[in-house]
Amino acid sequence: MQKPEFKLNGRIWIETPEGKVLGMGRVELLERIKESGSIRQAALQMKMSYKQAWDMVNHMNDHFGEVLVISHRGGKGGGNAIVTEYGLQVIVQYHILQSKFKAFLEDNLGSVVL
């Protein structure tokens, strides 16, 4: 019997003692808010409810010590949302961490003996 070909895989997220605050999905949400200027549009693009997206944004804002997204309520001209400079830095740092994690997985595949 031929041995299967294995690869290492995984996901990385950041958490506080209260739980997860950042992962791939939340970074995607931040990126879509940045692109669309809207939490509602970002939620629609990700096929999630506005409430779920809003709750995620509030959770990140509450647990990072600095605001990642500033939102303005709708009105005559409609509302908008802006990813702050700190939020943009968080996105970049997450992608750097994700790249390092992928490299770690690739570098350590050969050391897995099954």
Automatic annotation (TrEMBL):
Transmembrane segments: none annotated. Pfam families: HTH_1. GO terms for molecular function: DNA-binding transcription factor activity. It comes from the Bacteria. Residues 27-87 form the HTH lysR-type domain. This is Molybdate transport system regulatory protein.
